Amino acid sequence: MLTMRAWLPDPEFPDRSDITGFYRDTLTRVDRLPGVEAVAAVNVRPCLGWGLGADWDVEGWAPPDPDDPTFLELRIISPSYFSELAIVVDRLRAGARTTILTGAGVSAASGMPTFRGPGGLWKRHRPEALATPEAFAKVPVLVWEWYDWRRQLVAACKPNRAHGVLAAWTRRYRDLRLITQNVDGLHERAGADGVIRFHGSLWEVGCWGGCAAAPTRWPDHTVPFATRPPTCSHCGGPLRPGVVWFGEGIDPAVLAQSDDATSCDLFLTIGTSSLVYPAAGLVQQARHRGAFTVEINPDATVVSDHVDLVLRGTAEAVLDAIEHRVEHR
Ligand code: OAD
């Protein structure tokens, strides 16, 4: 599935009244793109419901901003997309041992910025200035301002369809494991069971000094904190966010659970750039152990050429399409 986005007026198509010409020209060009077998479905925001051909299916259509009259989205689905979806649907329905790894892209539709995409957090901030133990030792107030801002942002967000589908799967399929690199807690808020939180949680804190009276991590949902840094109720020292920073190791128990989960039949890597290790290594490990590996992402990543199947689309659209077929077959 290929999604094209454009805002009108587009310099290439200045005359909006010639919208039919716009479709025709665009579709002709899209048809010639490598990898596009045919233009199977089109939906265009300013003329919602407008389509070419009665039997064309429009998958996962969700206007990104229904109030923006200048937004135009074309969604082009090649015929093979439907048989590719069926590969995943059949395995799920057969009760395959399934492991899913998610990244920031899964929360994008909820309004959470990703790290490396356009407008991504690491485009605006340097990770070493905000997400390392050294940064915290140097400027704890600044680091907490950043984490407190992210907690406020997440608190104002809602889980999206991708979280909803994955949560349903964790409850429905006994042999399914969900590993997330996300610290936002949106999988849990959607009702997911047994989430393996690879990089910790924004909603946990720990004593920075590691005082003996306190547990390593504990839940804290205060938004916003009255003081930054917030203080440890056991020793009065500063608290730290319960996330894994660059330069820190993954919790050995989480690592062991994740390693174990790579012994599976089906491995889905969803909404992650696959650049941050050790999480990024899980998909290849699963493949080496015999799993059928699938990437769901609107953009190509470093693993796209090394998985068995790529479903090119957003997590919320592709998971919705899979779930629709799982439920209605
Ligand atoms: P990135 O920002 O590196 O990658 C996000 C991926 O999501 C990109 O490949 C996008 O193409 C894709 N994407 C964007 N919108 C999407 C959508 N609607 N549906 C599906 N995919 C979409 O984020 P991560 O790979 O999660 O580490 O980053 C990995 C780690 O780097 C994070 O856990 C964080 C960060 O530094 C820590 O916090 C330790």
Describe the 3D structure.
This protein is of the alpha/beta class and 329 residues long. It folds into two domains: 2-77, no CATH class; 86-328, Rossmann fold, CATH 3.40.50. The protein is built from eleven helices and eleven strands. It has helices at residues 19-31, 79-93, 121-124, 127-130, 133-138, 140-155, 161-172, 186-189, 252-261, 282-288, 315-328; strands spanning 2-7, 71-76, 98-102, 176-180, 196-197, 200-207, 218-219, 239-243, 266-270, 292-297, 309-312. The strands form three sheets. The chain has a six-stranded parallel beta sheet, sandwiched between helices. Helix 8 (186-189) links the parallel strand 4 (176-180) and strand 5 (196-197). Helix 7 packs across helix 11. 2'-O-acetyl adenosine-5-diphosphoribose (OAD) binds at residues 103-105, 108-109, 114-117, 120, 127, 181, 183, 199, 243-244, 271-273, 275-276, 297-299, 301, 314-316.
Task: List key phrases describing it.
single chain, 329 residues, alpha/beta, Rossmann fold, 2 domains, six-stranded parallel beta sheet, three-stranded antiparallel beta sheet, 32% helix, elongated, disordered N terminus, binds 2'-O-acetyl adenosine-5-diphosphoribose
Give a quick rundown of the structure.
The chain is of the alpha/beta class and 329 residues long. It has helices at residues 19-31, 79-93, 121-124, 127-130, 133-138, 140-155, 161-172, 186-189, 252-261, 282-288, 315-328, and strands at residues 2-7, 71-76, 98-102, 176-180, 196-197, 200-207, 218-219, 239-243, 266-270, 292-297, 309-312.
